[in-house]
Amino acid sequence: MTNGCIFCKIVTGDIPAERVYENEKVYAFLDIRPINRGHALVIHKHHHADIFDTPEEDLKDLMAAAKHLAPVLVKTTKADGLNIGMNNRGAAGQVVMHAHLHVIPRFVNDGLRHWPGRQYTPEELKLDADAIRKALK
Ligand code: AMP
Ligand code: ZN
User: Fold this and answer.
1) Is the pLDDT of residue 1 over 70?
2) What is the pLDDT of residues 2-61, one digit of tens each?
3) What CATH code is carried by the domain that includes residue 39?
4) Which of 59, 80, 81, 111 has the most crowded Cβ, counting Cβ within 10 A?
5) Number of domains in the chain
6) What pTM value is reported for the model?
7) pLDDT tens-digit readout, 94-135
8) Which atom number of ligand 1 is nearest to the Cα of residue 93?
């Protein structure tokens, strides 16, 4: 529990939420401002701010819970598809600084659009791939 963290408070019951799943490690509840109905958030009971400070084990717990929820959300909402997303840091749209996965039912005609792609120049493509490969070594 981290002081002032609303998601930690949801886990402890200090802030109400519509819990849909829980095990000893993770907690999942409905987003109060859903992109579509059935939009769930999966959080770890350990407080970590984002992917950068979440241990791999805890990320596995989050994804395992998303895997568990995915077919159930699709079935209950009669969705045609499902997005799983994670915003990390403010620049990426993260507002609540307790790492979480968004699990979002999608419908063929829900009017949402995918992120816009842009054109890579061949030089940039190579430059970026080289830099990432080098940093991973
Ligand atoms: P993010 O932008 O990735 O940090 O997403 C935070 C999400 O948490 C938003 O989609 C909010 O609608 C949702 N949210 C914030 N407070 C609550 C709450 N008390 N109960 C449920 N969802 C919440
Ligand atoms: Zn927290």
Assistant:
1) no
2) 779 999 999 999 999 999 999 999 999 999 999 999 999 999 999 999 999 999 999 999
3) 3.30.428.10
4) 59
5) 1
6) 0.96
7) 999 999 999 999 999 999 998 899 999 999 999 999 999 999
8) 2
**Does 129 reside within a domain?**
no
Please report which ligand is nearest the Cα atom of 49: 2
Q: Which among 14, 36, 41, 94 is the best mutation to test ligand 1's pocket, defined by most ligand atoms within 8 Å of the CB?
A: 41
CA 82 and chain centroid, separation: 12
Give the binding-site residues of ligand 1, using a 6 Å CB cut-off. Answer: 6, 15, 17, 29, 31-33, 41, 87, 93-96
Q: In this structure, is residue 34 part of a structural domain?
A: yes
Question: What's the whole-number mean pLDDT along residues 69-95?
Answer: 98
**Residue range of the domain that includes 27:** 6-110
Maximum Cα–Cα distance across the chain: 52
| Active-site annotation, residues | 100
> Which-ligand-closest: CA of 93?
1
Atom of ligand 1 nearest to the CA of 31: 22
